[in-house]
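Sharing in case it's useful to others searching the archive later.

Someone asked me privately for the predicted structure of DoxX family membrane protein, so I'm posting the question and my answer publicly. Question first, with the sequence:
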Amino acid sequence: MNNAASILILVFLAITFIQSGYDKLFHWKENLDFMKEHFAETRLKKLVRLALLHLLVLELISGVLCVVGAIELFVSNGRTFGLYGAVFSCISLLMMLFGQRMAKDYDGARTIVLYFIPAVMAVYWLN
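And my answer, the predicted structure tokens:
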């Protein structure tokens, strides 16, 4: 198991983004209402619906690519899908970080950094 750490991080990212995407998809109204309130005092207030939709799509792409990447890495030592999954995960997290900073939610932004560290590690290891 030369790739155990990379596989574990890909599984971590897959769980994170598939669960988050699932929550946004099946609890759209609650998420949208929360985000509208969260960004009410920012320049993003009119873009919340579109931003949430973009984030949903990116999270689902990230999660699926991480699942496929973990399987590919386990079965054939291939790194392509895992790398793409890690990169899309980083992009998703950067979008969230930008939003949290715009909303001046510094505790939320700090939390995103905890997810960003393993995502960047995956990019580095799989590159």
